[in-house]
């Protein structure tokens, strides 16, 4: 379980000295790893528009976080909780997520820096919203096929009342002629003797001594009985009164069920491959968009907090959960000069952990937090 902190501090002499101190502390204590978070020069625009963009980015961050979690959860469900398979597919631009974050480079082709911040926000919003809609549609289609197959498999492996009789009943077990037919009857174990005593009396047109036990499981047995076709309805009614269950069966019907099972199995396998590829591609796309969104938020908040001309340094700090609190304490101490009114106790109050992938914390320095626990990245 790891934490990432995207922080921003101004390029004044005191802050630069604090950054060097931070790097020294990290190197000495192994408290975290520290990398430059490369953000290009983006178009600032006017202050009013920057405030509006800040609000839009905050809302979009929440949406993107939700889509990332849903996509990752869907990936886990489709891959049936296989963590190795999930890790193999949960990548960003073909590399592990942590590597992508620590070596982040802005994609100018996809997100041109010449565009206003509002336009970049719209591009990401459209991308994320479209993926969310498609995820719902594709997941519903895949789950429909999966549930249909599970239903058929349940019938195959269920009780004698419902299960497939393929492999149990042979052609020679059935008598089918112009006048005669064979019925298959499910009898509970406790009713075997009753069946043997009474089945011939359920209709006067039952062939004497025609019943044979074809199969049994822990709950009961499957018996065959031969009778005249004209007596089938009468026999079924009498059997039901005696709590015997007559199974509707024919080889054509059974063959149709097996064909349907095979069809759904092939369809599920095909859709599995297509869906996993879609999840892999789109998880990468939305994660990449999300880190660009993080970079935009760091840029916007840095301009709003530290002013113009743009003059700040962005870093990404990677630590584990047990060192996260200590790292935050060091940051609060090193950059306390950025907020003369702040005190240690006040900083502790506002920097408490909030469950979720990304949070913006109003500290003396700018900080966005990513907790990878929800993605189970080790």
How would you explain this protein's 3D organization?
The protein has 378 residues and is of the alpha+beta class. It is built from 10 helices and 9 strands. It has helices at residues 13-29, 47-78, 83-89, 97-102, 117-157, 192-198, 232-241, 251-306, 321-334, 344-350; strands at 2-10, 33-36, 180-188, 212-216, 220-228, 245-247, 312-320, 358-362, 366-371. The strands form 2 sheets. Strands 2-7-1-9-8 form a 5-stranded antiparallel beta sheet, with helices on both faces. A 4-stranded antiparallel beta sheet has the order 4-5-3-6, covered by helices on one side.
Explain briefly what this protein structure is.
52% of the residues lie in helices and 16% in strands.
- Care to count the β-strands? 9
Largest sheet: 5 strands, antiparallel
**What portion of the residues fall into strands of 2 or more residues?**
15-25%
Q: Considering DSSP H and I runs of 4 or more, what fraction of the residues is helical?
A: 40-55%
Ends apart, CA distance between termini: 5 Å
Rough shape?
Answer: elongated
Contiguous low-pLDDT stretches (5 residues minimum) are 343-362
Instruction: Return the structural class.
Output: alpha+beta
What strand order characterises the main sheet?
2-7-1-9-8
Number of helices: 10
- Mean pLDDT value: 86
> SSE order, as H and E?
EHEHHHHEHEEHEHEHHEE
Rg over alpha carbons = 34 Å
């Amino acid at each position: 379980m790891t934490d990432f902190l995207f922080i921003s501090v101004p390029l004044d002499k005191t802050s630069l000295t604090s950054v060097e101190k931070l790097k020294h502390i990290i190197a000495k204590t192994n408290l975290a790893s520290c990398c430059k978070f490369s953000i290009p020069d983006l178009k600032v625009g006017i202050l009013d528009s920057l405030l509006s963009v800040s609000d839009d980015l905050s809302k979009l961050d929440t949406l993107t976080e939700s889509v990332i979690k849903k996509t990752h959860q869907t990936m886990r469900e489709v891959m049936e909780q296989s963590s190795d398979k999930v890790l193999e597919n949960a990548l960003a631009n073909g590399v592990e997520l942590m590597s992508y974050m620590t070596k982040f480079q802005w994609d100018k082709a996809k997100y041109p820096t010449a565009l206003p911040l509002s336009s970049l926000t719209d591009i990401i919003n459209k991308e994320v919203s479209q993926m969310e809609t498609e995820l719902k549609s594709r997941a519903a289609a895949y789950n429909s096929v999966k549930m249909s197959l599970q239903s058929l498999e349940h019938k195959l492996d269920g009780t004698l009342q419902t299960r497939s009789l393929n492999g149990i009943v042979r052609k020679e077990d059935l008598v089918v002629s112009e006048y005669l037919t064979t019925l298959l009857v499910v009898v509970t174990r406790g009713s075997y003797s009753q069946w043997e005593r009474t089945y011939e009396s359920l209709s006067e047109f039952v062939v004497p001594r025609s019943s044979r036990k074809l199969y049994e499981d822990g709950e009961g047995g499957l018996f065959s009985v031969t009778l005249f076709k004209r007596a089938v309805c009468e026999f079924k009614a009498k059997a039901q009164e005696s709590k015997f269950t007559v199974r509707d069966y024919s080889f054509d019907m059974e063959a149709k069920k097996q064909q349907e099972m095979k069809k759904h199995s092939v369809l599920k396998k095909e859709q599995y491959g297509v869906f996993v590829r879609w999840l892999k591609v789109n998880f990468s796309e939305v994660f990449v968009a999300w880190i660009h969104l993080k970079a935009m938020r760091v840029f916007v908040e840095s301009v709003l907090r530290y002013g113009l001309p743009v003059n700040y340094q962005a870093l990404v700090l990677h630590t584990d959960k047990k060192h996260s609190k200590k790292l935050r304490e060091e940051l609060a101490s090193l950059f306390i000069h950025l907020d003369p009114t702040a005190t240690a106790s006040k900083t502790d109050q506002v920097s408490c952990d909030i469950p979720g992938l990304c949070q913006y914390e109003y500290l003396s320095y700018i900080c966005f937090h990513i907790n990878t626990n929800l993605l189970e990245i080790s």
